């Protein structure tokens, strides 16, 4: 199938070219994002392959459909950037990669917890500058601490498994209980308010929906323990960043680790070293000594990127061959 591949990075090309030897799709790589200004590039391509920050709203979909696109192949799990109902109305099939390596995201999540708690980022730069003082580097044992997981799907379950190894008490809030978490990993399901009130560390692993947007807001932060650690490796808009800044300023939030940011679309995945920073909220977040930010890299491991390439190409072949689409997205 002819595929217009948006938001291409050198590593995407490397893995897709490798796995496409088995599929022989005709891929044209575009570095640019898909949006209203760039959609013309997809003219005549049956499939547009997109990532987390491509803009696939109703107006983009209408124009794509008119140009002959029949399929959107997301090479990620989240699909909050695609208007699924409009796609359905237009007869455009949307597929995704529901699981590529929950371990990758879970391990990065715990990496953020450890980096923040033991201040590894500070310690490393101090030692390299010849400063071997321990002042300010005091951490806490994870053992016996209470960690609250919002969402216990594939990634939340992996995080629970790792944290069980550390000897943490694990609370969770989810609309659906995960039996493995409850029966095998000793996770205690509680209401969201109780999770916020009792946890030393809160880690977000639910998708971004209307109902989960800004689930960490001023009200939620007010209910949390003083000095709480908040980790978000899911989607930026789960946290109201302005509320987080107020929480950090007051000391209510003791640590913040984020791999995602609500307005990341204009920042992440690009080298902006020499550009003037215009996002004041993001700029403020970078000034706190107890905030660690990574640029949406939690998924970025050999295993995960290989699985993304393979599953995306399989999804496209299944559509082409009229086979059952196991990874179709039906609604959001
Ligand atoms: P999943 O679909 O396996 O699990 C999501 C869980 O959230 C489910 O158990 C679901 O019942 C629960 N949930 C839904 N609505 C909820 C609500 N209102 N409150 C609490 N829980 C709710 O998804 P998976 O694979 O665990 O991924 C979780 C999220 O991680 C994705 O939605 C995606 O946004 C993010 N992600 C981030 C990556 C990164 O590189 N930073 C990479 C991959 C995923």
Give a brief description:
This protein is α/β, with parallel strands linked by helices and 332 residues long.
What is the count of structural domains?
Answer: 2
SSE string, helix = H, strand = E? EHEEHEHEHHEHEHEHEHEHEHEH
Overall pLDDT level: 97
Low-pLDDT stretches: none
Record field, number of beta strands = 12
> Would you identify the CATH H-level superfamily of the largest domain?
NAD(P)-binding Rossmann-like Domain
Structural class call reads alpha/beta
Distinct ligand kinds? 1,4-dihydronicotinamide adenine dinucleotide
Shape category: globular
CATH first level of the largest domain = Alpha Beta
The major pleated sheet works out as: 7 strands, parallel
CATH architecture of the largest domain: 3-Layer(aba) Sandwich
Q: Span from first to last CA?
A: 26 Å
3D architecture notes:
The structure is a single chain. The protein is an alpha/beta fold. The protein has two domains: 2-100 and 302-320, 3-Layer(aba) Sandwich (Rossmann fold), CATH 3.40.50; 102-293, Rossmann fold. Helices cover 36% and strands 15% of the residues. It contains twelve helices and twelve strands. It has helices at 10-20, 58-67, 84-90, 102-118, 120-128, 154-166, 179-184, 192-198, 218-223, 241-250, 280-285, 302-320; strands at 2-5, 26-29, 47-50, 71-74, 93-95, 146-150, 169-173, 188-189, 201-204, 228-232, 253-258, 291-293. The strands form two sheets. A seven-stranded parallel β-sheet has the order 8-7-6-9-10-11-12, with helices on both faces. Helix 1 (10-20) links the parallel strand 1 (2-5) and strand 2 (26-29). Helix 4 (102-118) packs across helix 6 (154-166). The longest helix is centred in the C-terminal third of the chain and has 19 residues, at 302-320. It is globular, with a radius of gyration of 21 Å. The model has no long low-confidence stretch (mean pLDDT 97). 1,4-dihydronicotinamide adenine dinucleotide binds next to helix 4 and helix 6.
């Amino acid at each position: 199938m002819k595929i217009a591949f948006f938001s291409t990075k050198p590593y995407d090309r490397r893995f897709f070219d490798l796995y496409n030897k088995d599929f022989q799709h005709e891929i044209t790589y575009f570095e640019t994002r898909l949006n209203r200004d760039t959609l013309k590039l997809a003219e005549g391509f049956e499939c547009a392959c997109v990532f987390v920050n491509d803009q696939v709203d109703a107006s983009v979909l209408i124009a794509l459909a008119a140009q002959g696109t029949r399929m959107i192949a997301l090479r990620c799990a989240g699909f909050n950037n695609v208007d699924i109902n409009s796609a359905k109305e237009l007869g455009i099939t949307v597929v995704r990669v529901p699981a590529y390596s929950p371990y990758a995201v879970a391990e990065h999540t715990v990496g953020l917890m450890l980096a923040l708690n033991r201040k590894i980022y500070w310690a490393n730069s101090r030692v390299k500058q010849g400063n071997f003082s321990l002042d300010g580097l005091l951490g806490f044992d994870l053992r016996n601490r209470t960690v609250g997981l919002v969402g216990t799907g594939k990634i939340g379950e992996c995080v629970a498994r790792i944290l069980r190894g550390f000897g943490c008490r694990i609370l969770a809030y989810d609309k659906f209980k995960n039996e493995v978490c409850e029966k095998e990993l000793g996770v205690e399901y509680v209401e969201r308010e109780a999770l916020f009130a009792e946890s030393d560390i809160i880690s977000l692993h639910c998708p971004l929906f209307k109902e989960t947007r800004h689930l960490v807001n001023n009200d939620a932060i007010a209910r949390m323990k003083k000095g709480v650690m908040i980790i978000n490796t899911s989607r930026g808009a789960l946290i109201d960043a302005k509320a987080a800044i107020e929480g950090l300023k007051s000391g209510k939030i003791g640590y913040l680790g984020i791999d995602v940011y609500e307005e990341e679309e204009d920042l992440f995945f690009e080298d902006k070293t020499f550009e003037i920073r215009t996002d004041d909220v993001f700029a403020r977040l970078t000034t706190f000594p107890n905030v660690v930010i990574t640029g949406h890299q939690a998924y970025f491991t050999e295993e995960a990127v290989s699985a993304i390439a393979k599953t995306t190409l399989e999804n496209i072949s299944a559509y082409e061959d009229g086979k059952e689409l196991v990874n179709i997205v039906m609604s959001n």
